[in-house]
Amino acid sequence: MKLTLKETFFRGIWKENPVAYQVLGICSALAVTVQMKTAIVMGIALTVVTGMSNLIISMLRKKIPSTIRIIVELTVIASLVIVIDQVLQAFLYDISKQLSVFVGLIITNCIVLGRAEAFALANDPLPSLLDGLGNGLGYGLILVAVAFVRELLGAGKIVGFSVIPQSWMDAGYSHMGLMVLAPGAFFIIGLLVWLKNSLPGASREEKTAQ
Asked: Is 157 helix (H, G, I), strand (E, B) or coil?
């Protein structure tokens, strides 16, 4: 059944979220979610790359020989990532340093290449753009949710601003050191995957049965 443009866009955000449903992009989700600022920037960067790469590859799909399609897809994705990386270094240098190699690793992110292969090569430009943007936003949504919990519990901050009253600290409250480590992110992502797939109509088994 052919999806509407609205369904194409929103399924990547929730129903088929690339992290919570497809369990993709986990490595970067563990690494860049200590602070909300880096998570937001990483989510925006991947959304732009996924949307634009889908659009470009869809526009070229009838001219790309099947034997070199992966090379063409990687070339398009790598070019977009280089542009994004240069923009971050020019305007958000501190966050660019914090993200380190993870911006460059968008090139090999299975979400980006997966959407190009699974959707952009078989669909028109507009649906492909919406599919890429939806999946990128779905990825970014999980990153921000994980970063919110990690930064709040691990440092008592939200987007760099302290939110834990000093009276709590004086009363014995202490930050959870586990949250600033990769295992903390892993636990949060696991809980989000469980929560998402526990909701009615959201699990893999129910979808397969339908």
From this structure: strand
